[in-house]
Amino acid sequence: MVKVGIVGGTGYTGVELLRLLAGHPQVEVTVITSRAEAGRPVADIYPNLRGHFDIAFSEPDLATLGACDLVFFATPNGTAMKLVPQLLEQGCRVVDLAADFRLQDIPLWEQWYGMTHSCPELVAEAVYGLPELNREAIRSARLVANPGCYPTAATLGFLPLIESGLVRLSGLVADCKSGVSGAGRGASVGTLMGEVGESFKAYGVPGHRHMPEIRQNLAQLADQSIDLTFVPHLLPMIRGIHATLYATLTDEADLQSLYETRFSHEPFVDVLPAGSHPETRSVRGVNHCRIAVHRPQDGDTVVVLAVIDNLVKGAAGQAIQNMNIMLGLEETLGLQAVALLP
Ligand SMILES: NC(=O)C1=CN([C@@H]2O[C@H](COP(=O)(O)OP(=O)(O)OC[C@H]3O[C@@H](n4cnc5c(N)ncnc54)[C@H](OP(=O)(O)O)[C@@H]3O)[C@@H](O)[C@H]2O)C=CC1
Ligand SMILES: CC(=O)N[C@@H](CCC(=O)OP(=O)(O)O)C(=O)O
Prior knowledge:
Blueprint: E1 2-7, H1 12-21, E2 27-33, H2 42-45, H3 62-66, E3 70-73, H4 80-89, E4 93-96, H5 106-113, E5 127-128, H6 131-139, E6 143-145, H7 149-163, E7 172-178, H8 193-196, E8 201-202, H9 210-222, E9 228-234, E10 241-248, H10 255-262, E11 269-271, E12 289-294, E13 301-308, H11 312-326
Helix pairs in contact: 1-11, 6-11, 7-9
Ligand 2 binds near residues 98, 232 and 234.
């Protein structure tokens, strides 16, 4: 069995890691941390985990974490970078669900995240953990930067169009909507039911920290800089992201077959039949990204619809997919559930 540790076990992504790892046949969670809940059994706080984990939360401690084969960080931005150098030295492999190692441009990261990076030398070594883009590099990585939720949906949706050079690299639009669990478990007025229920709004229009991450991914695909407008919205639901992506075609192509061919070997990307409209509930609780590609009225505009569960393919599920690849395990282990519908 592979020994796994989780730093930040009481947040939504930490508990989602536990839910998914409960069904993983080759992993044993040996350490799970929470400073606030240290000493309390996991199942005391999360009754859905009763009978699955006989383990208590503990304080983050380098000695116990260092004894793990792999450690997940499900912590706020700026936490992992303080412990990762020591864990790597002790021979641990690390998957960070936060953003500490996602942007290769350190000054840009410091500008968006409002702090000084404490181990910039490790950023160049870190592999951006989108398997559909970087699978080979993930296999041998010591440190994987798990992508953000919006960047996962937007990058997968745009990927075939940009990789094939079929669209203009300016004027790209990512119009994205998320459920409130994307804001984490911490209490805030903005995510109260009374604030979010029966309402709908955009936020972060002047700038959102996922903008540079999506741009970095698309520029890697295009091998040159791209121009993108990204607008996130908050939906009155708990889980799910719906990305509506727009691009302008520069060449003729069979878009349906482009998408089907590009993702034909991807276990977690499902290209829906032509004319489909994917629903967020079709991926609730599972690691899939479901995609539909449209060309309205046969014009030059391509509209791509991509849905994911922000806590699964947008966070914990993708982190486990990365772990499976890093450890040479079957990539889909622990990730074979079927979405909950309705
Ligand atoms: N929610 C989502 O859809 C997505 C989230 N992410 C990212 O995953 C990370 C976790 O998100 P989420 O689960 O929502 O977060 P939460 O804020 O809900 O949970 C944070 C967890 O981290 C622990 N923690 C906080 N500060 C520290 C610290 N200094 N040292 C050690 N542990 C700490 C907390 O426990 P305690 O304070 O008791 O130690 C808690 O268990 C974030 O970086 C988020 O951006 C990524 C993609 C999607
Ligand atoms: C709905 C909502 O608030 N979503 C979060 C993004 C989700 C996320 O956790 O992204 P990171 O992993 O990059 O932190 C936001 O807009 O800040």
